[in-house]
Specification:
alpha+beta, single chain, 5-stranded antiparallel β-sheet, 164 residues, 6 helices
């Protein structure tokens, strides 16, 4: 049975990343998400998790990660707590300007990558959540077109081999 919503609570430590990776992998397996799109999701959610970990001590004890299936795609939300304003401010920076800059910080680089790999990124100030949306409807359209192409090739070969 495919679960439409999930929640994972992790200790705010980088050592917990393997639990996050397993969570994302399980969700993607349930929705038949493979290859590069799985990589996009895993990278983006992992970077958001690492953003949420406070570099200034152990002020934050846990980081919550939420998953929600919506008609247009898969949504992953990461609680940012005391880093919310800092990360939301990084999001406001123009991607092109950040890429053209002589020097770019690791935080800026990560935010640019999240924005490039996610189909949509939203911030909710009330809940201090970063929301990353990954549209999956186009994946199904791509698979359908590929299957049609393969069937066409198959029937073309049958017609060629068929004696007149």
């Amino acid at each position: 049975m495919v679960e439409l919503e999930k929640h994972l609570r992790l200790k705010a430590r980088k050592e917990e990343i393997h639990k996050l990776e397993a969570f994302v992998e399980k969700v993607c397996d349930q929705f038949n998400i493979y290859h590069s799109y799985f990589g996009n999701i895993l990278f983006s959610v992992s970077e958001a998790f690492e953003f949420a970990i406070s570099e200034k001590g152990d002020r934050l004890k846990y980081i919550d990660v939420y998953f929600e299936s919506r008609p247009h795609g898969l949504v992953f939300k990461v609680s940012l707590s005391d880093r919310f304003l800092e990360i939301a401010a990084l999001f406001q920076d123009d991607v092109d300007k950040a890429l053209e800059a002589e020097e770019i910080s690791d935080s800026e680089r990560s935010m640019v990558m999240i924005r490039m790999l996610s189909d949509e990124v939203n911030f909710d100030a009330k809940t201090e959540l970063m929301e990353m949306v990954f549209y999956i409807t186009s994946i199904n359209q791509h698979l359908t077109r590929e299957r049609i192409r393969l069937l066409d090739e198959y029937f073309e070969k049958i017609n060629i081999k068929k004696p007149a």
